[in-house]
Amino acid sequence: MKRLLAVSSAAIYFFVTAYSAEAKPKKENIMYTTSYTYEFKEEKDVSGCITRATVALTKHGLSNGLKTDTNEDGRFGYVYGWSADSTATAEIDCDMDEKESNLAFSRYSDEPEATWEMWKRLRDAKW
Fold this sequence. Notes:
The chain has three helices and five strands, in the order αβαββββα. Strands 1-5-4-3-2 form a five-stranded antiparallel sheet, covered by helices on one side.
């Protein structure tokens, strides 16, 4: 009888464990992008836009591996960085010829709502 009880308990344990493991959301890479019309006003190059974009990434915890670059004539540039836990990354570019700025954000997570909230805060940041 004890053996039957032990086998039954083990079977129930493995069934519940397997079932609960299947119910947990799987991690996925979620990416959001958007473009903004960007008024460069009296600026001669994209350095002001890149500086403000760098501050936005830093403020939102995406400053690890921070890298910026501009082309030779200063009409296009970008900044990118990632989170301390390396699960989120973002890039902002500034393009004077197109008069726009573009944002790309990606996060690997099993929390889509939290990823959406992070995206909205970064999307609404001013640079």
